[in-house]
Amino acid sequence: MNRIKKWLGNLGVIVALLVGLVGWILLPWQGVLALAVLAALWLSFTRSGRLALAATRIGIASLPDRWGASSVIVVGIAGVVGVLVAMLAMGAGFQKTLNQTGRDDTAIILRGGSQAETNSTIAREQVPLISSLAGIALDTDGRPLVSPELSQVVNMVTRADGTDANAQLRGVGDAGWAIRPQLEIVEGRRFEPGKRELVVGQGAQSQYVGLEVGKTIELANQDWTVVGRFASGDSHDSELWADAQTLSSTYQRTSYQSVTVRLKNAKALTAFKAAMAADPRLKLDVLSTKDYYSKQSEGLTKLIDILGKVIGTIMAIGAVFGALNTMYAAVAGRAREIATMRAIGFRGLPVVVAVMLETMLLALLGGLLGGLLAWLVFNNYSVSTLSGNFSQVMFKFNVSPELLWSGLKWALGIGLVGGLFPSLRAARLPVTEALRSA
């Protein structure tokens, strides 16, 4: 019976610890700050707190004598934080790139029920109907800013390893440039309508072979000349652009895949949607380009986030066991020291807090080291991945302050778990037994 009670008691402690750890990871910075202030007040203005600080100073003073064992905690937690932050930075970077692509004052029209341009078709006769709808902005000549577009996946050779990869070749209308004012020609010129000419994004040029300005590549058994390079700071950097009509004739397309329009302002989207819904000939879906590209990033971002946290959790479990072994060994090695403190008046709580603070300090060092390494190695590191339209998108890892803060909380959480049980053992250590065995 006593064994069952002890087992249930231990299970209750573990469950409470897991719940507390999850709560700690989810706690906003305001909550962490409040806990830190309360802990500082307790340590400064209570007798037990001052005793805990004194015991902590003794433990920290002995760290150089056991730095080899203590470094196990620092290095293990640094590895956890570094991998976790790097994984989450990949998802954050991909999401940031696609979020930057869209605008609230531009809209993309797709076939009803389509999730992406690749599975959408829009009949040519529908384009004039779309152009006449309310809410569309006009250019200086009074023409609606409407760009019927094609999205063709083409095979390119990567610079990194010479393997084949999918690239997105986008055919745009005359208004395509005005609709996306963030695009800037940084080398060469724009393509001319009716000619087999390409303008390539700077990301695509750095990713694929043969896209330097002036080079000729073969697409659909026809020669295309690269006449310019553009920079946009978003996912269009990964694309190749050509005249929509020329692309349509090359690939024998009889319809478009999407239509992108510039609206008078962000509020005009509501009127534009209403006008679209009122025309029975237009069974089409409308989204702001900001919402469209955000949705394109959701699936992969969630997958990377889940994978990062799963891998981080597995590594964190290993780091916890490393911390437990190290701190148990430290408690055993300091048995006489702890017993002496107990004998001269240090009660159980100050001893528990002292061991916990020592472990949390090592965890803090590990978290800072791991975050620093992740930032130095991965921040703005360029990679490419498959996006929702099955073509490669160039993006950069984004090691943001929020991710570094999250990694630091994971580190402190590992230190909390790794130091709790050794600290309880230290507090329960019989004084006479410890003095005799030391």
UniProtKB/TrEMBL annotation:
Transmembrane regions listed in the UniProt entry: 7-27, 33-55, 67-94, 310-331, 351-378, 403-421
GO terms of molecular function: transmembrane transporter activity
Main location, first listed in the record: membrane
Boundaries of every ABC3 transporter permease C-terminal domain copy: 310-430
Bilayer topology annotation: Multi-pass membrane protein
Annotated MacB-like periplasmic core domain residues: 72-277
Pfam families: FtsX (PF02687), MacB_PCD (PF12704)
GO cellular component terms, A-Z: plasma membrane
Assigned keywords, A-Z: Cell membrane, Membrane, Transmembrane, Transmembrane helix
Xref: InterPro entries: ABC3_permease_C, MacB_PCD, Macrolide_Exporter_MacB
Family matches, as PANTHER family: ABC TRANSPORTER PERMEASE, MEMBRANE COMPONENT OF TRANSPORTER-RELATED
The protein's name in its UniProt record: ABC transporter permease
Species of origin: Marilutibacter aestuarii
